[in-house]
Amino acid sequence: MEKKQEKKRIVLVPVPAQGHVTPFMQLGKALSLKGFLITVAQGQFNRISPSPDFPGFQFVTIPESLPESELKRLGPIEFALKHNKTNEASFKDCIAQLLLQQGNDIACIIYDESMYSCEAAAREFKIPCVIFTTTSATNHASRCVLSKLNAERFFSDIEDPEVQDKVVENLYPLRYKHLRPSGLGPLEPHLEMRREIVNKRTASAFIINTSNCLESLSLSWLQQELKIPVYPLGPLHITASAPSSLLKQDRSCIEWLNKQKPRSVIYISMGSMAHMETKEVVETAWGLSDSNQPFLWVTGSGSITCPDWIETFPEELRKTVSERGYIVKWAPQIEVLAHPAVGGFWSHCGWNSTLESIAEGVPMICRPFHGEQLLNAMYIESVWSVGIQLEGEVERVTVERAVKRLIVDEEGACMRDRARLLKDKVKASVRNGGSSYNALDELVKYLETD
Ligand code: UDP
């Protein structure tokens, strides 16, 4: 009789933030559907709890991980540096415990690139490890270029407009000015993190939540540059639904959307980290009201700096906001974007939001805040031509104009047509025989090989 093959276990190590946890859980779900056992190793906050959505998943805690107050105190980059130092020994203990408990070995540790301290445990216990990049391939390529440059010298030279505007070789339309990690504090911690990531790296493959039809040039560049297999298997939210919202989603907005005309609503969300200043909120509210379009606005876990923002509006504005708008703390975003009433998405251009909007063929108003969001916005506007950027200071007239361009004007209709075509390509890539579908199959073969 043929011996039943033992299932292999994969340990997933996400960064504790919504935009990272979600794609990790989707990857876990996709791999579990392919027959792997999944363990999710998490810190003390932004944790996913066991639920029927994740049958058979094991959740373990890395005991000495940093608390959330440290993230608030240090900001994301300094936090990541400190988190990795604190985590290293604790993660090793965690893996040692797992190896003792499990009847089966750990086939692979898949970790977020910013959780590079995982490599120490992988090395010690001789477990293969793979990096999962939850951002775009282009962003990953730009980080690689940054690591290769003598970055400190480069950044003192970059004030020269000729250098700034030079295209990075083989990565058009990426220019040198795009490599600067803007809006996320001083440069040195970024460079220190890049050094740590690159010097410690032993990972034998990369997984990227993107599709070949979106970023073929950056993917070819990465394949050549990294010299290890790269698996572009996204958008994962289409392949494997994995409800992993860290905040409760307010579904009442779906009932409100049901009452709106097709493609009339502008949906506004800045994701889980970006913050809008009070002045920007007020100008946005005026602009939305003046546009005469209905709007659904997510105020987020802290995306608006003033918590009682609506109370601060003048009486007239409060009235139009409540007549035309619907406001929630957190929405079921994928469902909202799929709703026929939604005509446009005003977004901070986080990578997950970008993929979710593309997958529903919804054109975008881009208002990036920092880091990779700026690259995503550039791609949305200039490469895929499915959105417009709102640059400079936000004023009510520019908001009104942008909403009308997207929802009412012919220009918006053309963008919507292109967005639909892009949606079709992206969906085809995850279907049987498509590039992302094949990449997932190849990854599975790779993980199954001893
Ligand atoms: N999201 C959500 N409800 C909201 C706003 C956002 O469920 O009201 C989800 C969204 O679907 C996406 C994630 O939060 O999967 C945000 O990730 P993204 O990479 O876009 O931005 P980040 O929060 O990392 O800046």
Explain this structure to me?
- The protein starts with 8 loop residues before the first strand and ends with a helix.
- The radius of gyration is 22 Å and the shape is globular.
- The chain has a 7-stranded parallel beta sheet, sandwiched between helices. A 6-stranded parallel beta sheet has the order 10-9-8-11-12-13, with helices on both faces.
- The chain has 2 domains: 9-244 and 431-449, Glycogen Phosphorylase B (Rossmann fold), CATH 3.40.50; 252-408, Glycogen Phosphorylase B (Rossmann fold), CATH 3.40.50.2000.
- The protein has 450 residues and is of the alpha/beta class.
- Strand 12 (364-366), helix 16 (372-383) and strand 13 (387-389) form a beta-alpha-beta unit.
- Helix 2 (68-74) runs antiparallel to helix 3, helix 3 (76-101) packs parallel to helix 4 and helix 3 runs parallel beside helix 8 (187-200).
- It is built from 19 helices and 13 strands.
- Uridine-5'-diphosphate is lined by residues 18-19, 22, 245, 249, 269, 271-273, 298, 330-331, 333-334, 350-353, 356.
- Residues 18-19, 22, 245, 249, 269, 271-273, 298, 330-331, 333-334, 350-353, 356 line the site of uridine-5'-diphosphate.
Rg estimate, integer Å: 22 Å
Mean pLDDT: 91
Separation of the first and last Cα atoms: 23 Å
Number of beta strands: 13
Main sheet overview: 7 strands, parallel
CATH superfamily of the largest domain: Glycogen Phosphorylase B
User: What is the CATH topology of the largest domain?
Assistant: Rossmann fold
Query: What count of helical segments does DSSP give?
Result: 19
Q: Tell me which ligands are bound.
A: uridine-5'-diphosphate
Beta-strand percent range:
5-15%
| Shape type | globular
Give, in spatial order, the strands making up the sheet with the most strands.
Answer: 3-2-1-4-5-6-7
What kind of oligomer do you see?
A: single chain
Number of domains: 2
User: Could you say what the CATH architecture of the largest domain is?
Assistant: 3-Layer(aba) Sandwich
CATH class of the largest domain: Alpha Beta
Low-pLDDT runs of 5+ residues are: none
Family: Belongs to the UDP-glycosyltransferase family.
InterPro entries: UDP_glucos_trans
Protein name: Glycosyltransferase
Organism: Brassica oleracea var. oleracea
